[in-house]
Design a protein that fits this description.
- The protein is an alpha+beta fold.
- Helix content is 27%, strand content 27%.
- It has one domain: Creatinase/methionine aminopeptidase superfamily (Creatine Amidinohydrolase, Alpha-Beta Complex), CATH 3.90.230.10.
- The model has no long low-confidence stretch (mean pLDDT 98).
- The structure holds 2-amino-4-trifluoromethylsulfanyl-butyric acid (MF3) and cobalt (II) ion.
Length: 256
């Protein structure tokens, strides 16, 4: 069942969403040559605690891994797709890209968002990867209207990414969000005809999160059991927003 939120609940999700936005803005400003992904982690955790919120990811049990995640951020560099583990050993260098994903729980409601940030200048192809992934998220957001169906959202990402020849990661998907980090439905970044295609209604909130490889779509998990990387070693981008369906249209909760 997809849980619909009241306007008062959406206001609480908005507060969580704006906190996540503020953290990601700070992360974006911190990203530069020589910074470690652990430095990002420590600053993000401080911001979350200072806001009186709880990190949504730290301690979160992921059944597919069989473990609890140990950080407030996922920091996935270059060919890493998702769930990159912050580390003092991971020093960002020019030409890298880093996907930063974080979630918080504030007053019982969750926010979840991700950005991919270039470190200095990146190649034109990587620039295009970032632009296309970001655009695919915007096109999906625009489908978040009562009366549309879930496949309109998934299909918007799929069509745009495919038209540019990049690889859509299939092993990880977006999700409903509310009083839980992960609620129904799953939101793949492609139309999965095995799934149901529910009609979208006012009060539904989806975390839409395209993960796109510059090369082939396949990914694998590394020896640390968490970090997913593209199988062909191509760079991977990830952008995510929480989006509510309102009478006035899509409401992106995780940006101003
Ligand atoms: N953004 C991802 C998601 O929404 C990351 C959460 S998984 C965790 O599913 F392991 F980091 F908690
Ligand atoms: Co998410």
């Amino acid at each position: 069942m997809i849980i619909r939120k009241t306007p008062a609940e959406l206001e609480k999700m908005r507060a969580a969403g704006l906190l996540v936005h503020g953290i990601l803005k700070r992360m974006e400003a911190m990203v530069s040559e020589g910074v470690t992904t652990l430095e990002l982690e420590l600053e993000a955790e401080k911001m979350i605690r200072d806001a009186g919120a709880k990190p949504a990811f730290k301690g979160y049990y992921v059944p597919a891994v069989g473990q609890r995640y140990q950080f407030v951020l996922c920091t996935s560099v270059n060919e890493e797709v998702v769930h990159g583990l912050p580390s003092a050993k991971r020093i960002l260098k020019k030409g890298d890209i880093v996907s930063i994903d974080t979630g918080v729980e504030l007053n019982g409601y969750y926010g979840d968002s991700a950005i991919t940030v270039p470190v200095g200048e990146v190649s034109p192809k990587v620039e295009r990867l970032l632009a296309v992934t970001r655009e695919s998220l915007e096109l999906a957001i625009d489908q978040m209207r009562a009366g549309n169906r879930l496949f309109d959202v998934c299909g918007a990402v799929e069509r745009h990414v495919n038209s540019h020849g990049f690889g859509i990661v299939r092993e990880f998907v977006g999700h409903g969000i509310g009083t839980q980090l992960h609620e129904e439905p799953q939101v793949p970044n492609y139309v999965d005809r095995k799934n149901e295609n529910p009609r979208l209604k006012e009060g539904m909130v989806l975390a839409i999160e395209p993960m796109v490889n510059a090369g082939k779509p396949e990914s694998r998990v590394t020896a640390d059991k968490w970090t997913a990387v593209s199988k062909d070693g191509s760079f991977s981008a990830h952008f995510e927003h929480c989006v509510a369906i309102t009478a006035e249209g899509p409401w992106v909760l995780t940006r101003p």
